[in-house]
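FIELD: query
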Amino acid sequence: MQQKGQMSHAKMLAVGAVCIALAFMLNQVAIFRMPMGGSVTPMSMLFIVLAGYWLGPAFGILAGVSLGLLDTITGAFIVHPAQYVLDYILGFGALGISGFFRRMKFGLQIGYIAGVFGRWVMVFLSGLLFFYMYAPEGQHAAIYSAVYNLNYIAPEMIVTLIIISLPSMKHAINIVTKSIVPPAVYEQMLAVNAGSVSAAARIATGAVLGTLGGMAFVFAGHLRRLEELTVMQVAFDVQAFSDPIRADRVYRLVERNSEQIFAFQTAGVIFLALAAALMISTLCAEREKAREEA
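FIELD: result
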């Protein structure tokens, strides 16, 4: 017998199936694809996070595992059974832990960060254990795996966080949440998210994000200069072209620098855009407040 405040299993299965289907379709649209697996998609991870946020962690993790199994059909990058489990079963399943945070303030945002971080941990371990041989000479395998997987996970995470934090998107998600979760659970979720962030806190957050964005561009510029110096040195070094091993090392060095430059520039643009959005929204809110008081 269904207890008060609980969702029916049929409704949970229907909502879970829709979330999996949407995540699977968006996961096939690669905005940017990495050479050895992993891609930036149009918010495909969000719908598994929403499954956990709406249905709880158990169903959310199950939805993530289901997405990993479906992704296998379309051509998974598999070199070892344990690597497959880490990348596709545990990696996608980790997105469902968002359900543990749904009764917290900013539960969706915190749950999304936690779920994506859980996925990053799984793919980081996969890269460290099974793709260490691709690390450029002189770079530790852990650093290589961390940077490689951040290159496609971080941009999608940051863009999605910006979008789900927009007032219109928050309102739309709230309407859907109200129609899905039981009234008792919805009232608890609504209560913990009552109120708003102060203007001072938003300005401070915008200043921090703007600083991080500027630093990201500084790091990208530094890497660009190193890459240009490397190319200039190779251009005058005939031996690098006659020695295949040395030429391969130089190629990997330039490739690594290009990946890191792309990651820093992307992060810089996103951080600066988020900082500008926070500042503009704060100024508009303060102006509206002054009009009401007048």
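FIELD: remark
The two ends are 57 Å apart (CA to CA).
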